[in-house]
Amino acid sequence: MKRLAWIAFATAITLFLQGCAGWQSALDPKGPAASELAWLIWFFTGLCAVVWVLVMIALAVPLTMRPRLHAEPLVIDAGAENRKLRVVMTAVGLTAVILVGLTLLSFFANRTLAAIGSDTALTIRVTGHQWWWEVRYEDATPSRILTTANEIHIPAGEPVRLLLTSTDVIHSFWVPSLSGKLDLIPGRMNVLDIKADKPGIYRGQCAEFCGAQHANMGTFIIAEPRAKFDAWWNDQLQPAAAPTSDEAKAGENLFLKRPCVMCHKIGGTPAGGTVAPDLTHIASRQTLAAGTLTMSRGNLAAWIADPQGVKPGSHMPVVDLSGDELNAIVAYLEGLK
Prior knowledge:
The chain is of the alpha+beta class.
């Protein structure tokens, strides 16, 4: 029985600790900011566990001791009272030392986080919308300013500065494997410095309730070697590829004649909307609707045909399309890589 109990306990602990890993866990750090925060979490948790155990012991000892009987109930035992006073004063002193120590640890951790962006070379402006992320890569040369949506590409091993703001309500940007969370507030610009230690894909999430589709407001930070990142940026700066098939050409014509152009932009075409994600290279992204759907022909068609069925409350309206029209538009958008 004891062996079975230990096996059950070990299994339960293993399953419990599985939640400490993965691409959306603050306890699975992949950058200096996340590593500093994870260390603080473990230290605070361990120290609080030790304090809790000591308090439980201090509580259990007097409860289990047999009370002493005095001939005179009202007579005070001066020695016992002094011992109790020393115990209380020691506990108060230790509490003060622990609180001061934790405060100092937090202070130095903040200094470490602030130092991450001291040699930042890349600045990205991230704007929160209900319910997607607008991503703008700043550059001293206006022609190299790039605007995308929902996916954030960064060079691995280099610090990146994110300028965070919002156009509607308060959102919160959080990529647990890379950094702590920071709010996006309308009319205010907050600064978050991040760094990915190595190439990889790190999932983020809005961490501030912002409306009905708050849970479906995800993002992905894609860290890649500098050469690959530069190549990606140069590709994204190019206008949309011209359609080649007859179906895709018909889809482009339909897209430009339907309400799509009122909200979306496609570089190199008359579509110049600015209130919804830029679709110039939409097919190069891994997901649709801010991480709600994986990128595929079927999901693209489902999103266009019934956005309210996929993401109820989203600001994308339903456009009345026949089956052939839907297929043509999907064929056109599939070519925008």
